[in-house]
Amino acid sequence: MNDDAYRQKQMEAYPLNKLARLLEPGPLVLVTTGHQDNSNIMTMGFHMMVQHDPPLIAFVMGPWDFSHKALVETGTCVIAIPGADLMEKAVDIGNCSGAETDKFKRFNLDPLDAEIVGAPLIKQCLANIECRVVDTQLSEKYNLFVVEAVRAWVNRSRKEQRIFHHKGDGTFSLDGRTIDMKARMTKWKEITA
Fold first, then answer.
1. Tens digit of pLDDT for each residue in 140-183?
2. Where are the extended beta strands (E) located within the chain?
3. Nearest to 51 by CA among 163, 148, 188, 190
4. Residues 6+ apart with CB under 8 A from 41
5. By the 8 A CB rule, do 15 and 23 touch?
6. Helix (H, G, I), strand (E, B), or coil: what is residue 151?
7. How many whole angstroms separate alpha carbon 67 and alpha carbon 80?
8. Which of 23, 80, 151, 186 has its C-alpha lying 20 to 30 A from 33's C-alpha?
């Protein structure tokens, strides 16, 4: 059987408009913004690490998001990583708008003052990353922002430490067992320390 026939028999064509479902790189996160004495939380799945040092993160946030105006005007946000026990709340947070809802109150989440930025941390999350916008070159065209992490916090005392990933179609995968391959990472020793 030639390659073409094999591919057609074994592989199924996949719609390009659903490609994010195959490549979604990181955990579902909650993004907080603070603007004019109002704090908001939004759910986000489109984000990625850009580089390690300084730590840069890129994400998509557009004018359809209530948090967009606050991000543009303040240039700061917090990326909070919820544990698996917050999965339902994270989905529900994404199903309502901060224009009509105080999401901290509605979802019984506790805001904590950040050290550097004006957006709040979320007490119940596994980690909180304080961020400043450092690059908006692609914001107008693609709604892509690049932020620099300026302070990070983790809560190792939480019982639930697993994170979860949105698969782009309303389903989620849950982190499970961790496999240690540090010894094999001979070219990248600096990141395994």
1. 999 999 999 999 999 989 999 999 998 878 888 888 777 777 77
2. 29-35, 38-44, 47-51, 56-60, 76-81, 111-112, 121-122, 127-135, 144-154, 164-166, 172-174
3. 148
4. 30, 31, 32, 80, 93, 98, 103, 104, 107, 109, 122
5. no
6. strand
7. 14
8. 23
Q: Are the beta carbons of 76 and 118 closer than 8 angstroms?
A: yes
Q: Is 39 helix (H, G, I), strand (E, B) or coil?
A: strand
Q: Which two tokens stand for residue 16?
A: 């390009």
Assigned token pair, 132: 């400043």
Cβ count near 22 (within 10 Å): 9
Q: What phi and psi, each to the nearest 5 degrees, are found at residue 104?
A: -60, -45
Say whether the peptide bond before residue 54 is cis (omega within 30 degrees of 0). yes
Q: Which one-letter amino acid corresponds to residue 170? A: G
DSSP SS3 for 70:
helix
- Which domains occur in the chain, in start order? 24-192 (2.30.110.10)
Whether 121 has a pLDDT exceeding 60, the answer reads yes
Which residues contact residue 167 at a Cβ distance below 8 angstroms, ignoring those fewer than 6 apart? 21, 24, 173
Count other C-beta atoms under 10 Å from residue 60's C-beta. 16
Pairing state between β 172-174 and 164-166: antiparallel
